[in-house]
Amino acid sequence: MSRLTTAEMRGYQQICGNDGAMMVIACDQRGGMRSLLAKDPEAQAAISDKTLGDTKADIARFLASQASCVLVDPICAVPALVDDRIIQRDTALLIGLDASGWDTSPEGYRLSKLVPGISARSVRQLGATGGKIMVYLRSDREEANTHNIKILRQCIDDFAREDLLLVVEFLTYRFDDEDEAEYKTMLPSLVIGGSRICLDCGAKVLKIPYPGTAEACAEVTRLAGDVPWAVLSAGVDHSTFLKQVEDAMRNGASGVIAGRSLWKDCISLDRSVTKDRLQSVAVPRLREIQAVISAHFKGVKSEGIDQGQKADA
Description:
- This is Tagatose-bisphosphate aldolase.
- It is a single chain.
- Strand 7, helix 8 and strand 8 (206-208) form a beta-alpha-beta unit.
- Helix 4 (49-62) packs across helix 12 (271-296), helix 8 (180-200) runs parallel beside helix 9 and helix 10 packs parallel to helix 12 (271-296).
- This protein has 13 helices and 12 strands.
- It has one domain (6-296): TIM Barrel.
- It has helices spanning 6-15, 31-37, 41-46, 49-62, 80-83, 120-125, 146-162, 180-200, 214-224, 238-250, 260-263, 271-296, 307-312, and strands spanning 22-26, 69-72, 92-96, 103-104, 110-111, 130-136, 165-171, 206-208, 229-232, 255-258, 301-302, 305-306.
């Protein structure tokens, strides 16, 4: 397995809390965030990047400030988060490289896309702790992944040259002609298989969908070895996600990178509503997730002292 360099390890420490576990607030969505802010397609299209940037700034100000890190996109959120001093100095910053949406091949495969002009060097220049790349994978169909694995390897190599932390995320998906019930039964094997592909490409930190079962979580941990992995929320309701986090943490996960399950029903085009709901709804949800993480995560040990104890010394 690929091991973190000293510089990458420092970046990884910064996206983790004092207990050594990842607790990252994800708000790098663009299309998905527009669909939450407005229901009508015309109204969604009218929402500017500036409005999305303001929404992400509110999430960073009121929610990510209570966590260890925030994940944003390079289109709407930065450099304003840094230049306007919205992000706190002890909140780490990850920048997503993947473009919104996907192209579709003639065979129906999802083809991932990158934001033009964003590289490891530009991520560093934006003041970020590291980057995040997301690709779509169907581990049961080798031919479906050729394009996306090429993108994945390209990004991993780029960040290795810059010696900058890169979090690798993948999502799996159902084909249009595929039975939904049958697809759901395949999810554990697809998540395990997708994790294997990312690890084989050299991923050093993973962000993955909930593997579906405790046994699948344990198998991802076995495959990953020393590579830490975080579970993503995929927009499920908060109570469901809490159970998934507990399952993942009990079986070897190193934290959480969560977005919509925290804030999807809190954001509004009325920023006063967003502020109130982030404070009254999203922050208590975050505290519940943090409690689950603290109950199960042992932290990284060094000479008998864990990271949390070091931070308190």
